[in-house]
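Need fresh eyes. Consider my entry:
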Amino acid sequence: MTAAPERSAPPRSSRYYRPRRPISLAVLLVGFVLGVAGGLYTAWELAPVEEVDTAPWQLSRQGQAEYIVAVMLAYSQDSDLSRAVTRLLELRVPDPIQHVAEVACDLARTGYVAEPGGDRAIRAMMNFYQLQGRTGCADQLMPGVPEPSPTFDLVIAATPTLPPPPTKTNTPEGFIDGPTATPTVRVAPTVAPQQRFTVVRLERFCDADFAATMEVYVQETGGTPLPGQRVRVRWNDGESIFITGVKPGRGRDYADFTMEPDISYTVDMPGLSDPSDVMISSGCFDATGEQTRASYRVVFRPSF
């Protein structure tokens, strides 16, 4: 007696039977969205990228324009043509002087001229390239205005006039024989008072990545950066003058100075501020416990 052949089970309808997947597509999609959102939040909020030691030619178009403004304002202060051209060569453009004229043209066409210091910055650029025999559209957009000359007060000072020598001629009746007052003009120039600055913030900090660094910021009252400002650091047997804004990667109002250990320093703006309190770069430990030397952050703003 032979066994009856086994009958295979009928195939299940695809309506009710589907093969199981180890991972759901919906879970993958949700995980992907959460991962992207978390990465963006970390990159933008928790640990944003900081520009450090960015070369001028690597800056954006706006960043390069701000760099040129800082260089031109520095040139208007020290008139050092060689230094200005050397700094402009860092932009790696074919003709740096004509490039200044083009940037001045672009800025003159925008609302930059109405910003604090904008008019002064563009005219500094115009003065630079015009002295090198170049021209640009800023020459028509901002026609040259002569530099304001000092104003004068007219002070009338009475000076005696000696009487004429005696003669045989009778003195007419009513004539007063004696010294007479003759008005003489003495010109006394008056100079407008310079803007005064004061140190509104001076703090000591410890960071191994920026050891023994004096960070100086010069700003408007509301915190607007002021590039091209002269800053002076003094110590017992020397001094150093540098300009804000020549490191645009750190800010248009930024300048720095490397401090030597255990030397007393003060910082000021020549003719515009009093010296700061004394700063000394002594040893310290940063937040990670690494031993380094202390740094300082100094902020200047107008005192009125």
Summary: The helical segments are 25-46, 61-78, 81-89, 96-108, 118-131, 138-141. The CA atoms of residues 26 and 32 lie 10 Å apart.
